[in-house]
Amino acid sequence: MSFDTKIEKKWLNDAKSLYATIVLPEAYFSERITLAGIEAAKQNIAKVILLTDDDNAFEKYSIEESENLKVININTSDIRPMLQETLVTLRKDKGMTMELADQTLKDAVYFGTMMVELGLADGLVAGAEISTAKTFKPAFQIIKSKDKNTKVSSFFVMIKEVDGEESIYVLSDCGVNIAPDANDLAGFAMQSAETCRNLCYMDPKVAMLCYSTKGSAEGDCALKVREAVKILEDKNVDFDFDGEMQLDAAVVEEVAKLKCPNSKVGGKANVLIFPNLESGNIGYKLMQRFGGYKAIGPIAQGMRKPINDVSRGANVEEIVEAIALTVLQTK
Q1: The CATH homologous superfamily of the domain defined by 153-289
Q2: Would you say 301 and 191 are in contact if contact means Cβ atoms under 8 Å apart?
Q3: Are 216 and 313 in contact (CB under 8 A)?
Q4: pLDDT tens for each residue of 217-246
Q5: pTM to 2 decimals?
């Protein structure tokens, strides 16, 4: 398995030093997830737990359980009663009963999320076969955000080698929030700046994207992004940011000199905050499919414990990287 860029190699090496436990709830019906889990365990990237509802599900893989690789049957495991009782306690005000909890835990994603909640695993990765909504629904109900003022968002890391150098961007939000408001966008900017520092090892330069640069056009989106920029200014954040700005002004220095010559970020942005989900989702896929960038994500940020969703188009290597990033988020 090949991880070509410096940052990918650093992710894998840094993850090995943390030795966290990651649960994979799709393992028994996703070959890609299973193979990625086996590889992550083999490379000491994580201690991996594969969930199943069938003791014979992994026969063709000749899995040998070890300190790094465990298999848990969600229907017969001796931890099931503990998860069931805790789920009732957590969700009693939402009508959760022992009978309903028993049914709920037949869903491996709920089972795995409860393992993370109780500290039996440090993080969870899913999404190879199921939707983003199905991955995150249990997390939003059980794990929730870091605090009541934080809205969970997602990011992609986009990587490409250009003229012998690594071109790296953090993009948000491309996977969770359909129509964020100005406060949300400011929050995503702060989360993504932290992600840029902690996971991409770069000094963040955040561009708040729009179809307008510094008042060149009007409309609801432009007003929203301007308000988000004002919120960041009032918070006196510790990273460079600017907006509203068009993509070319954010990443092309020649364009920035014309459209926003006094910007600290113009032409040099490495964190791109999109005004809504549709632009973010389309944007990362354009970079991936037409621009030749490798897309790692979507990875959640702002959650109390790391629960992450991979693209349903992700290959085994990309899932291994998602496991490594999930490990790094346990720090």
Answers
A1: Isocitrate/Isopropylmalate dehydrogenase-like (3.40.50.10750)
A2: yes
A3: no
A4: 999 999 999 999 999 999 999 999 998 999
A5: 0.88
